[in-house]
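Encode chain A's predicted structure.
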Amino acid sequence: MLEQILPAGVAVEEVFGDVPDAKLLPEEEAVIATAVARRRTEFATARACARAALARLGEPAVPILAGAKGAQASSPWGWTPSRTTRSPMASSA
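Encoded structure for chain A:
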């Protein structure tokens, strides 16, 4: 759906519902360790989408962490994932 409205060169991953087996990297686990189960699932789903979109751009899996003072996450290569986890859809571009 989103890939139809975004410009060429933008990688998109979208899912409808949670990704129940989404794995977090250790650095991400540390950030969300004390959150309730629902928040952990949303967090993991958003990162799974972001990693899948970044993989389409040829980037390896790395932790996706918030920036300074909780600001938008960024990647080591300068990509800035944009995520949403509004039920029933999660996406990253």
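The mean pLDDT is 77.
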